[in-house]
């Protein structure tokens, strides 16, 4: 429970708005929801669940606390759990390119746990808000996607989340925000914007940075959090579990619910770890991630490249291993040597088993161990073009890992993870003379055949 706490106020969280200007505004929005027929009643239950059949509130909070960074509205969540009724958990996505990795799956596994207790995940496809483009984390406007691409991305999202979430209708509901925005007229849209102030929107750090740098902010970017907030009203969200980058938008959803006389959703942000390279969080652009769609052997191999000092935190966040086992793995990894390698093997097997089952995980471990022990190169090796025959070990390894820092590459060499034609290279400054067809191994599963141009 110590990790599950109220999130501190910060410049990233939208300040509480002033009270509604008139009762007519509230009446207007209520009538709009009733007319559209798309709003979900707050107490609509997909599965009747009594307090006796659900886990205790403390058990649920302790489980969520393992991977929770902060929470806004803890008391609200506690009250709802104490009431023993199923929650509606909003899982909203913009239909941009869906390449989900282990970091994204932290949220999914928390939702899956709640699904297994009878709570409903509302998978909300932002088919309208995608056309606006979420400006979060951007120093410039996002490109607008065509409808066909939005639909294709939506299908890919659903395919990937189903690797973790249950999709049976008792605990999973698919919605689109075009259900309410497609029928909202200009008067409705203006009324919606009237609930939010300019000061709230420009309080975001990224907008302040753009203003200071003299870069423009599109009006569609500025107001983006408002329709996302209204999504929470329409789906009757009790809880949303998001990355910290969405804290501003989802807190605004909580505030809008309050303004319109609804119960406010709880906003949980989840734990973020460094990526595989020990630097920034997992990212496709950095190549330091494990994708949900990676095959079991590929997941296993990537995990075996993880720095020893991250084994404990990755086991804590990305597995469901008991915490005493997590602590043992972390301590073993930091001790170095064979114990560290065994800890990495255990971590990789646990992660693969979570997505593909214990049999696939055991097979991946056996294949990796055989490959590592035998030092046998795979049959088909990718080519690595080398422009010169004479270079240092560090220069050669940098060609194979162009995104890694010199510090990471030197550590790879010093750990004995670099071999040329089966000979281990441990000095990054050692001069080499390479030949066409030489075989380079750099890391547990990175193999290349050298092609001297």
List the helices and strands and how they pair.
Elements: H1 23-36, H2 57-65, E1 68-72, H3 74-83, E2 88-94, H4 102-116, E3 120-126, H5 129-132, H6 147-161, E4 172-176, H7 178-181, H8 186-193, H9 198-201, H10 205-213, H11 219-222, H12 225-235, E5 239-242, H13 247-259, E6 266-270, H14 296-303, H15 311-318, H16 323-335, H17 337-356, H18 358-374, E7 383-386, E8 390-392, H19 393-400, H20 406-414, E9 418-420, E10 423-424, E11 431-433, E12 439-442, E13 447-452
Parallel strand pairs: 2-3, 2-5, 3-4, 5-6, 7-13
Antiparallel strand pairs: 1-6, 8-11, 9-10, 9-12, 12-13
Helix pairs in contact: 12-13, 14-17, 14-18, 15-16, 15-17, 16-17, 17-18, 19-20
Note down, in words, how this protein is organized:
With 453 residues, this protein is an alpha/beta fold. Helices cover 45% and strands 13% of the residues. The protein folds into 3 domains: 23-270, 3-Layer(aba) Sandwich (Rossmann fold), CATH 3.40.50; 296-374, Tyrosyl-Transfer RNA Synthetase; 383-452, RNA-binding S4 domain (Structural Genomics Hypothetical 15.5 Kd Protein In mrcA-pckA Intergenic Region, Chain A), CATH 3.10.290.10. Strands 1-6-5-2-3-4 form a 6-stranded mixed beta sheet, with helices on both faces. It has a 5-stranded mixed beta sheet with strand order 7-13-12-9-10, covered by helices on one side. A two-stranded antiparallel sheet has the order 8-11. Helix 15 (311-318) runs antiparallel to helix 16, helix 15 (311-318) runs parallel beside helix 17 and helix 17 (337-356) runs antiparallel to helix 18. It is globular, with a radius of gyration of 25 Å.
């Amino acid at each position: 429970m110590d990790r599950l706490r109220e999130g501190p106020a910060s410049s990233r969280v939208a300040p509480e708005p002033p009270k509604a200007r008139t009762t007519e505004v509230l009446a207007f929005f209520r009538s709009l929801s009733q007319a559209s027929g798309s709003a979900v009643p707050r107490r609509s239950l997909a599965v009747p669940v009594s307090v006796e059949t659900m886990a205790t509130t403390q058990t649920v909070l302790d489980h969520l606390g393992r991977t929770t960074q902060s929470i806004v509205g803890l008391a609200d969540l506690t009250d709802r759990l104490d009431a023993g009724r199923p929650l509606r958990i909003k899982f909203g996505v913009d239909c941009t390119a869906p390449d989900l990795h282990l970091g994204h799956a932290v949220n999914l596994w928390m939702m899956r746990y709640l699904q297994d207790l009878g709570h409903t995940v509302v998978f909300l496809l932002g088919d309208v808000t995608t056309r606006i483009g979420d400006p979060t984390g951007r120093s410039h406007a996002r490109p607008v996607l065509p409808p066909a691409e939005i639909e294709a991305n939506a299908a890919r999202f659903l395919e990937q989340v189903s690797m973790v979430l249950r999709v049976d209708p008792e605990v999973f509901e698919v919605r689109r925000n075009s259900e309410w925005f497609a029928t909202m007229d200009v008067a409705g849209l203006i009324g919606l914007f009237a609930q939010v102030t300019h000061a709230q929107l420009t309080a975001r750090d990224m907008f302040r940075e753009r203003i200071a740098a003299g870069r423009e902010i599109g009006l569609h970017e500025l107001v983006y959090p408002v329709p996302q907030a209204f999504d929470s009203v329409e789906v009757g969200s009790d809880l949303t579990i998001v990355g910290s980058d969405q804290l501003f938008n989802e807190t605004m959803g909580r505030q809008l619910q309050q303004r319109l006389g609804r119960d406010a959703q709880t906003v949980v942000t989840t734990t973020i770890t460094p990526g595989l390279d020990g630097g920034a969080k997992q990212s496709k652009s950095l190549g330091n991630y494990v994708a949900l769609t990676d095959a079991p052997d590929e997941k296993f191999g990537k995990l075996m490249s993880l720095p020893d000092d991250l084994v404990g935190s990755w086991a804590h966040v990305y597995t469901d291993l008991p915490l005493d086992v997590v602590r043992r793995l972390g301590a073993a990894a930091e001790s170095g040597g064979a114990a560290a390698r065994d800890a990495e093997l255990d971590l990789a097997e646990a992660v693969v088993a979570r997505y593909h089952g214990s049999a696939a995980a055991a097979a991946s471990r056996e294949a990796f161990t055989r490959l590592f022990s035998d030092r046998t190169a795979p049959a088909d090796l990718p080519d690595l073009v080398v422009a010169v025959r004479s270079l240092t070990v560090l220069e050669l390894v940098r060609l194979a890992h162009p995104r890694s820092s010199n510090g990471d590459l030197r550590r790879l060499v010093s750990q004995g993870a670099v071999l040329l034609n089966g000979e281990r290279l441990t000095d990054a400054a050692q001069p080499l003379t390479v030949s066409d067809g030489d075989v380079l191994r750099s890391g547990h599963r990175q193999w290349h055949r050298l092609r001297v141009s």
